[in-house]
Design a protein that fits this description.
The structure holds two protein chains of two kinds. Chain A is mainly β. Chain A is 0% helix and 44% strand. Chain A contains no helices and 27 strands. In chain A, the strands form six sheets. Chain A has a six-stranded mixed sheet, with no helix packed on it. Chain A is globular, with a radius of gyration of 19 Å. About 8% of the residues of chain B have low confidence. Helices cover 21% and strands 19% of the residues of chain B. By secondary structure, chain B is an alpha+beta fold. Chain B has one domain. In chain B, strands 5, 6, 7, 8 and 9 form a five-stranded antiparallel sheet that branches. Chain B has a four-stranded antiparallel sheet with strand order 2-3-1-4, with helices on one face. Classes of the chains: A mainly beta, B alpha+beta. Chains A and B meet through loops of A and loops of B.
């Protein structure tokens, strides 16, 4: 059975709300015995504004601190901003830190607009992770005019736990690290999985004569970056492996870029990738160990409730959760069967059509796995969904 | 009797072209006092500055100036000059009278003359002092720093602020309001010219409001704007006795230039617009009520326990009862500056040519620390309107008490030191 949950009152914009289930489509009862996580989440709470003193906005990435290090405490929530005060996408340079203990949001990092080795400047994307050793890796997908007309190739930056950039990674495999990262972190070694969505993406004014739309470029990749992390030293790249390629990417004047936007790693080493152009979730087998590209992988599930999927995470019940770009829903699906199980409107802001369109992006599990953190790009708030 | 500035100009012809900044003479005052209707003159002199509690005129032309004159004496001379000119302009007179044959045609006129055939139009000129008059770039240029009132604080950065430097701040402000836009602009134009060498315009903003007298005007979002006003504004606007002597009878002005995404707004369902504002669009009645001036039913909920007026509706978050009693007197105007290229600050981050239109928000209060600042700090985070409105400029100004004849505006500030 596929059900969709809506907030109790669409009128309420910010308030803590209850979810009410509404059956959208029915199927064989009991086909998936695993309980849905989304069905258990009824309370939605705005936690804190993500806007910084310099006016950065449009929160993208969320990562929950796995350790206490530097000024970051265990279970703190780090959020980065994609826009600066000019509202232009690909120009944000700040990371904020939400403390669940104090319930305060503070500035964690303010990175310069240009960093040596970061091609085209800094515009912090959804690619951000904190390692168990306290290092933070964050991606830049930069522009200067808020569109891909000025898209630079960007970089990955390594920050210490006090918010200082300590090194920058840029090479031919790295072109606009875009989607939320997955990580296999063993402490002294780690593997990052990050989508690259900026290979040969033209300006949004360039149209495909056949469709009249911006051309779909099938050059996006997922890169595995294997790291060594010497004691008390920043992580260093041991090797890079393109494990998926030929994924679609497309410029958009308003949304900046469509492409592979989220990755999530299963316990068996399978990587799942959200494809925002084709509205599908794809499977890359043996992502941790493979030495070659799996191409675009195989489609696990597509369309129906999945509408321009963005961030992707693996829930404790083994289901995938994907935020939608075309509305304010998060979708839960079973990666084994591909069955779309449940969708919940996290954001019902009617200032967008359909409600919540473009408002969601990053998503993360709360410690313990019983709730979600998510960003609301319309109001620039960190929010949580809890039972 | 129909009064025009040309008529007054004739009546004052004996003053001659050399009367720059001259005081009103008895005959001029007599003529001015006899005006009525559209010809009404709002007295310039008094215990309080006009243009604060004055019934709101249809147009404004607001100007902020940077003071450039290096010496305090130069500043006080400017204010003296402005005072004399303001007394004449608000009385429907040109800055300097000139009639055919009375001036040297080889010289420029001292008044530009575009208001010569126009009526006084209830022109008011309200002067304010910006933070830069007291300390600028860490320098107390005029030795006035110690006279800065405690209540006269810098505005903090509010959530969502996207202030443009060229439309923000200022050492001096002049709010010109009149029932004729040309009269208001004319007044600022003359004052700016008089300031040559002493102060220069930093930014200006024209504004307008339309509607029949006695009816609440509608803003550019199509909603009635101004239904809620303080029951006794005198208790809301005038600085308290704790203020320095020069600010007694004065008021603190906060002005904000608020660009409204009208294209975005126009695409919203009317029900959502009404939820955003908290009022019905046609009648102006609060949601759940039937008449414009019905009390806001802030505590009323529906069967599910949800507030009839949403928690983030504009009228709720702006209401004094939800702001620890904070009150301001609003005196805002719509503005329309054509179109310009903009990147919206909401998904889907639309870029394009859009109206540069919205609200010139103007408010007066006894103490911004307990009025606009806490009120708007909350609104900047919670108001549903934030998805359509962006603050792009403005400032804070201390408007001194009124001027009695023989004084100049703010004179008591200079005597204070």
């Amino acid at each position: 059975m596929i059900v969709i949950s809506v907030r109790r009152s669409i009128r309420l914009f910010f308030a803590t709300l209850l979810a009410t289930a509404m059956v959208l489509q029915t199927g064989p009862a009991g086909a998936d015995p695993t309980p849905s996580l989304l069905e258990t989440l009824h309370k939605h709470t705005l936690l804190a504004s993500t806007v910084t003193d310099n006016g950065d906005l449009n929160p993208y990435a969320i990562t929950v601190a796995p350790v206490s290090a530097g000024q970051v405490k265990l279970d703190d929530v780090l959020i980065d901003n994609f826009n600066n005060v000019s509202n232009l996408q690909g120009t944000g340079t700040t990371i904020v830190d939400y403390s669940p203990t104090t319930q305060k949001m503070t500035l964690f990092a303010k990175i310069p607009q240009t960093v040596a080795g970061c091609r085209g400047g800094v515009g912090l994307s959804t690619a951000m992770i904190m390692l168990k050793t306290g290092w933070i890796i964050v991606g830049s997908t930069p522009s200067t005019d808020g569109t891909t007309q000025t898209l630079g190739e960007g970089c990955l930056m390594v920050l210490d736990p006090n918010g200082n950039v300590v090194s920058t990674w840029a090479d031919p495999n790295i072109a606009d690290p875009w989607g939320n990262m997955a990580v296999s972190d063993n402490g002294t070694t780690a593997s990052l999985f990050v989508s690259m969505a900026g290979f040969d993406v033209p300006a949004p004014s360039v149209k495909d004569p056949a469709t009249g739309e911006a051309p779909i470029i099938r050059k996006a990749t997922v890169l595995r970056i294997d790291l060594s992390i010497p004691y008390a030293k920043p992580p260093a790249i041991k090797s890079e492996t393109v494990i998926a390629s030929g994924l679609p990417e497309q410029a958009d004047r308003d949304s900046f870029l469509f492409g592979p936007t989220g990755v999530a790693l299963g316990t068996d080493g399978t990587l799942y990738v959200s494809d925002a152009v084709d509205s599908s979730i794809d499977r890359i087998q043996d992502a941790v160990t493979r030495t070659t590209s799996a191409g675009t992988g195989t489609v696990v599930s597509s369309k129906k409730l999945i509408c321009d999927p963005l961030s992707l995470i693996m829930a404790p019940n083994g289901h995938l959760l994907s935020t939608n770009g075309l509305n304010g829903q998060v979708v839960e699906l079973d990666p084994a069967s591909g069955k779309q199980i449940f969708a919940q409107w996290l954001d019902v802001d009617q200032a967008q059509t359909p409600p919540g369109k473009g408002d969601l992006f990053g998503i993360a599990l709360k410690p313990g796995g019983t709730g979600l953190y998510y960003v609301e790009d319309d109001t620039n708030f960190l929010a949580e969904a809890t039972p | 009797m129909s009064i025009t500035r040309r008529g007054l100009l004739g009546a004052a012809s004996s003053i001659g072209a050399a009367a720059l900044g001259s005081r009103l003479n008895a005959s001029e005052l007599h003529v001015a006092a006899s005006a009525h209707g559209r010809n009404q003159i709002v007295p310039f002199f008094g215990d309080y500055q006009a243009g604060i509690l004055t019934p709101q005129q249809s147009h404004t032309y607001f100007a902020a100036f940077d003071v450039t004159v290096p010496k305090r004496s130069g500043l006080s001379e400017l204010l003296q000059s402005w005072t004399d000119a303001a007394a004449r302009l608000t009385a429907g007179l040109p800055v300097a009278a000139a009639t055919e044959g009375s001036y040297d045609s080889a010289q420029p006129l001292l008044d530009s003359g575009e208001a010569g055939d126009l009526r006084p139009a209830r022109l008011t000129l309200t002067f304010g002092f910006g933070p830069g008059l007291f300390v600028k770039d860490s320098t107390d240029r005029y030795g006035l720093g110690s006279a800065r009132p405690a209540a006269f604080v810098d505005l903090p950065r509010f959530n969502g602020d996207q202030l443009i430097e060229g439309k923000t701040g200022g050492d001096l402000s002049v709010q010109a309001c009149a029932d004729d836009p040309q009269v208001a602009f004319h007044a600022i134009r003359q004052l700016a010219r008089l300031a040559d060498g002493a102060a220069q315009i930093r930014w200006v903003q024209a504004g307008f409001r339309s509607g029949d007298p006695g009816k609440t005007p509608r803003n550019l979002m199509g909603f009635k704007d101004g239904t809620q006003t303080p029951s006794d504004p005198r208790h809301v606007v005038w600085a308290t006795d704790e203020a320095p002597r020069w600010m007694r009878g004065g008021s603190y002005l906060v002005v904000r230039r608020i660009r409204i995404a009208l294209e975005h707004w126009d695409r919203m369902k009317v029900a959502f617009q009404e939820q955003t504002i908290g009022r019905q669009k046609a009648s102006g009645a609060p949601l759940g009520m039937t008449q414009e001036f019905d009390q806001l039913p802030l505590a009323t909920t529906d069967r599910d326990g949800n507030f009839i007026i949403p928690e983030t509706a504009h009228v709720r978050v702006a209401n004094a009862s939800t702001n620890d009693g904070a009150q301001i007197l609003r005196r805002g105007y719509s503005y329309n500056d054509g179109v310009s290229f903009v990147a919206e600050r909401w998904p889907p981050w639309h870029q394009g040519m859009e109206y540069d239109s919205g609200l010139l928000f103007v408010c007066y209060q006894t103490d911004p620390r307990t009025a606009f600042i806490p009120m708007f700090d909350r609104m900047s985070k919670m108001d549903m309107l934030n998805q359509f409105a962006t603050h792009t400029g403005g400032g804070i100004f201390a408007c001194p008490g009124g001027v009695v004849k023989g004084e100049y505006i703010g004179q008591r500030l200079f005597e204070h030191i």
